[in-house]
Amino acid sequence: MTTTSYRMRDRIIRDHTVTVPLDWSAPDDGRTIEVFAREVADVERVDAPVLVFLQGGPGGKGPRPMPGGDWIDEVLHTHRVLLLDQRGTGRSTRIETSSVAGLTPEEGAELLMKFRAEQIVGDLEHIRREIYGGVRWETLGQSYGGFLTLTYLSLHPEALSAAYVTGGLTSFEPDATDVYRRTLPRVAAKTAEFYRRYPQDADTVARIVDVVEGSDVRLPSGDRLTARRLQTLGIEFGMQPGYDRVHWMLDEAFTARGRLSESFLAEVDAHTQYWGAPLYALLQEEIYADGPGATAWAAERVRAELGGFEAAGAPVPFTGEMFFPWQYDEIASLRPFRDAAHALAEREDHPRLYDPDRLRRNEVPLAAAMYYDDMYVDFGYAEDAAAAMPNTYLWVTNEYEHDGLRQDTRVVRTLIDRVIAEGGPLA
After folding, report:
1. pLDDT given at position 322
2. Radius of gyration of the chain (CA)
3. Is there a catalytic annotation at residue 143?
4. In what order do the strands lie in the sheet with 137-142?
5. φ and ψ at residue 64, rounded to 5 degrees
6. Separation in Å, CA 301 to CA 161, 213, 246, 343
7. How far is CA 279 from the centre of its chain?
8. Do residues 366 and 165 make contact, with C-beta atoms less than 8 angstroms apart?
């Protein structure tokens, strides 16, 4: 374990790097990785209670503190914040193309399974024991971080004094097929709203589809731009500025001579590559793999089952936070992982993510903000989970999209205050 400390304006930063087993279910097999976590504290509150931030994703690194009055600044009034780079990301041992080079598809899939939620919780428990002396701490889970929260409460509820979740309270009896049967219609509704706001973009998107389907249009990466890749820009529609971000991208799609502009192609390439975060794509369905059974490209199957997502006519439909097998052929940053991704989708032997019986006896106060119109996490799952878990307090709002935590510091403070009002964190 190594620790370095320094001051950043009115904050004290402590950077921790620990060596942990690659597989917490076989900790003595000799394989290890490094995990990095950064503690941020106000100079006047260096001994405040620890709140661990569970980043969204999957495959997300912890945020880097910046000035500007964000949620971290708000939390520092009452807590220290521990920002984890989840294994495989950031300054932790990363998953990159070299990670699977030379591996068989099955070996690649086996490696990727070591970056699931139960392993991340193992890392957190090691850090809690070795650096913080085993003290109970609090967690804040954004999006996928809410999934991690339920895994943490399933495996080590004794570690937590309170938990907060933003946009990530989900079913603790998940099924990938059911997830996409719920979320793909949400994407369709968001797409309809996008075209209602910007009706002129319907013709622009249809025109782009005609161009890319009728000729070999290349992105800066060398990838060919296809209609179905263009459709994946709909992933932006679940965030507060998402509609506007896509609109302004389309606004500059064509040059005065009617060609697709280089700036547009560069933006599409940047928004649809995963060089810095391949685990986000690779584990997207794996986060729903709770026990035996293959995910078997659930999003692709449900997309075909529901219909209506073909890029034909106008308005052209978009897709959202889901990944399809063809992306591993068409996207340069994912192509090296193709065989491992296919092997992972067919695996049947997944560890359990959640313990429903333990969650139904939950004693840890949990306050969750759920966004009624959330495109990524179905609100119905949150209702069911909150009804089944004691000591869970649900705040439902349609003021925010999925990124409400980043948009308004009131979100995190409301959750912390709710736990205090209900008796406070456990001692």
Report:
1. 97
2. 22
3. yes
4. 2-8, 11-21, 32-42, 80-85, 50-54, 137-142, 160-166, 366-371, 392-397
5. -95, 125
6. 41, 23, 26, 17
7. 10
8. yes
Longest distance between any two alpha carbons in the chain, whole Å? 68
The answer to whether the beta carbons of residues 3 and 15 sit under 8 Å apart is: yes
Beta strand extents in 43-102 (DSSP E only): 50-54, 80-85
What is the token pair recorded at 265?
A: 């192609």
What 3-state DSSP class applies to 387?
helix
Write out the two tokens for 243.
Answer: 């509609």
Distance (Å, rounded) from C-alpha 220 to C-alpha 153? Answer: 45
Cα separation, 75 vs 81, in Å, equals: 7
Q: Is the pTM of this model over 0.70?
A: yes
Catalytic residue (choose from 10, 251, 329, 349): 349
**Is residue 356 reached through a cis peptide bond, with omega within 30 degrees of 0 on the bond before it?**
no
pLDDT at 313: 82
Strand, coil or helix: what is 241?
Answer: coil
> Could you tell me the mean pLDDT of each successive run of 10 residues in the chain, 427 residues long?
95 98 97 98 97 97 92 97 98 98 98 98 98 98 98 98 98 96 97 98 97 97 98 97 98 96 98 97 98 98 97 93 98 98 98 98 98 95 97 97 96 98 97
The DSSP secondary structure of 166-216, one letter per residue, reads ES----SS--HHHHHHHHHHHHHHHHHHHHHH-THHHHHHHHHHHHHHHS-
Q: How many residues comprise the chain?
A: 427
Here the tokens at position 128 are 């809690």
The token pair at 219 is 């992105």
Concerning whether 85 is annotated as a catalytic residue, the answer is no
Q: Which of 73, 154, 402, 403 is catalytic?
A: 402
User: Is 269 annotated as catalytic?
Assistant: no
Task: Indicate the helix (H) or strand (E) that contains 137.
Answer: strand 137-142
Q: Compute the distance between CA of residue 201 and CA of residue 165 in angstroms, rounded to an integer.
A: 35
Cis? peptide before 199, omega within 30° of 0: no
Cα–Cα nearest to 297, from 327, 331, 336: 327
Q: Round to whole Å and give the CA distance between 178 and 272.
A: 25
Distance, in Å, from the CA atom of 385 to the CA atom of 390, rounded to the nearest integer, reads: 10
Closest Cα to residue 368, out of 347, 387, 345, 340? 387
Active-site annotation holder among 143, 154, 161, 333 = 143
